Amino acid sequence: MSWQDKYKPVIGLETHAELKTASKMFCGCVNDPFGAKQPNSHTCPVCLGMPGGLPVPNKKAIEWTLKIGLATDCEVNLFSKFDRKHYFYPDLAKGYQISQYDLPFCYGGKLETSQGIIGIRRVHLEEDTAKLLHKKIDGKDVSLIDFNRSGVPLVEIVTEPDIRNGAQAKEYGKKMRQLLRYLDVADCDMEQGGMRLEANISLRKKGTKELPSYKVEIKNINSFRFMEQAIDYELERQAKILDSGETPQQETRGWDATKNQTFSQRSKEEAEDYRYFPEPDIPPIRFTEDQVEKIKSALPETPQQVAGRWEKDYELTAAQAAQLSTVESESELAWLDSILKLLNQQKLDIQLFANDLINKKLSVTQKLTPEEVVKRFESLHATEEIDGGELAGLIQEVLKNNQDAVEKYQAGEQQVLGFLMGQVLGKIDKKLDPKQVRNALQTALED
């Protein structure tokens, strides 16, 4: 009996993404932590946490956070606020982070995956921390701090514990990154830390509804593949502990990509008390329904919405529509949409076109107009005429030389038809219509 027969995973994800506004979240410093020529060059008294520095919220960052929430079917809190989240660590100059606690900008959304809908609990906005660099200088281990990242607007998207396994978490993460790039609000450069993932993982016995008494958090994952591996490893590890009659320790763990296993970082016996309280230097924020509606009405059709329309209008399979809509710009999606409309108008095979693109049989870029793409598709499948008598002669020759395959077909093994078609097509130096060959071959086999 496997652990899947006894336990049900309880998995939630936290996605942190740096917004690409021109300036930082609460000050006018340039928001370009990865492009700065020198450490600590994009700083000021506010993002350095100096006494007297007063934060002023970035309006664009707030609007973009609402944009993300509305694109994932969230509700918007018309009354919201910022809060102080207290903790002491070298990358946090003030000793607290300006974040959001009980009144996030957005809540109650969702994102669809092939394994089911994943609920989004909240979408909130905060400031990023400085970056710690651990190096060896003059033979000594030292930690350096670069405050260019401190104060960068950071959106956090928290799911409900609806994720079933590592593969679904990976799919969700990729779709969320695609959406953030498509909305043009974040670059999500995972190698540099522009998008970070954290997974909260536990197991409960099947048939029970209560959440487990423990939670293991895997922090700072910078790869979808690593996240999938870490979650699946952790589920196996926790199942073995539960099978032994013990309860996994509530802790924070990391992922060792070399050993392909998680490792303990620190114990979390109790929930951390960040001593949240409302940020006194920033007044509460109120939105009107008209303001929210204006942002919502300006949203482009999302890739998932477009994929659903393609399934309905062009009878693409869910897999075809999902793969074709995996683009990260509104212009590219509109370009593909116009191509499918043109194919439909000309009554060409849209399913075949989709398969050609997905399987890389047809290579096209946005430099080509939709008309040029359709011409290339037609050229790819252009066929030459063949005399019916000539084709019949070829087929008879192939059937005579492949009696074993003929007997298998007549015994019900339909798959050998492909083999026989290949034999016929290989005997002539012409690009024939596969449907014509198939029909002629089937007729000959049934005579």
Characterization of the model:
By secondary structure, the protein is α+β, with helices and mostly antiparallel strands. The chain folds into 3 domains: 3-286, no CATH class; 300-380, no CATH class; 388-446, Arc Repressor Mutant, subunit A (Orthogonal Bundle). The protein is built from 13 helices and 16 strands. The strands form 4 sheets. It has a 9-stranded mixed β-sheet with strand order 2-6-7-10-1-11-12-13-14. A 3-stranded antiparallel β-sheet has the order 5-4-15, with no helix packed on it. The two termini are 53 Å apart.
Count of DSSP E strands? 16
Shape, please? elongated
Strand order, biggest sheet?
Answer: 2-6-7-10-1-11-12-13-14
Rg to the nearest angstrom?
Answer: 29 Å
Major β-sheet profile: 9 strands, mixed
State which percent range the strand residues make up.
15-25%
Helicity level: 25-40%
Number of domains: 3
Helix and strand composition category: alpha+beta
Compressed to H and E, one letter per element, the order equals EHEEEEEEEEEHEEHEEEEHHHHHHHHHH
Q: Taking all residues together, what is the mean pLDDT?
A: 92
Give the CA-CA distance, first to last residue.
53 Å
The helix count comes to 13
Enumerate the spans where pLDDT stays under 50 for 5 or more consecutive residues: none
